[in-house]
Specification:
Low-confidence stretches: 1-43
Number of strands: 0
Mean pLDDT: 79
Number of helices: 6
Helix content: 55-70%
Order of helices and strands: HHHHHH
Structural class: mainly alpha
CATH architecture of the largest domain: Up-down Bundle
Largest sheet: none
Strand content: under 5%
Number of domains: 2
CATH topology of the largest domain: de novo design (two linked rop proteins)
CATH superfamily of the largest domain: 23S rRNA-intervening sequence
CATH class of the largest domain: Mainly Alpha
């Protein structure tokens, strides 16, 4: 009898695929996986579970910087004056798009498709940089202090770093295609 698989969130902390396969071979039938804390996971399903604990994109530096940029973008959005909701929404969507396209690209098998998604993420990062320029222009002159200018500059520097990494990743994928 096969038991229903459990959600991946309950499977963090599993051991290696080989250890799980060894347990599967040692126990015939639909017994609970020896590497799982949850008895609803069978030994037949168990070999794939360790790879669900972290996704490929979570190990990428560019993804981590892009996630950090989302937090910074949210701070910038909070400074945008009333009446510029479309600008705030555009920054929110573009910043999110960077992370989503990096994640989608890292999950692809085709180098050509990976490169295409990394280029899309790069374009979203470039769009965010332009939005920050527009924010600087649209903020009331009396609210533009030295500290705020430095914050906008540091956020643009994060975007330069993201763009640089994405260009290298896309070129590497295109070369291997």
């Amino acid at each position: 009898m096969r038991l229903a698989p459990t959600p991946t969130s309950a499977l963090v902390g599993l051991r290696s695929r080989d250890a799980c396969r060894a347990g599967a071979r040692a126990r015939a039938g639909a017994r609970a996986c020896p590497q799982s804390d949850n008895n609803s996971v069978t030994t037949d399903d168990c070999w794939a579970l360790p790879y669900m604990a972290t996704f490929d994109h979570e190990r990428l530096d560019v993804y981590q910087v892009a996630i950090e940029f989302i937090s910074e973008a949210d701070l910038t959005i909070s400074m945008i004056p009333p009446g510029h909701a479309s600008l705030a929404d555009q920054l929110r969507r573009a910043a999110t798009s960077i992370c989503l396209n990096i994640a989608e690209g890292s999950g692809e098998f085709s180098p050509k498709e990976k490169a295409r998604l990394y280029r899309i993420a790069k374009r979203s990062a470039t769009e965010c940089a332009a939005i920050l320029d527009v924010v600087r222009i649209r903020l009331p002159p009396d609210s533009l202090g030295e500290e705020l200018c430095e914050q906008l500059d540091s956020r643009k520097e994060m975007l330069r770093r993201i763009v640089s990494m994405l260009i290298k990743m896309a070129r590497r994928m295109e070369a291997s295609a």
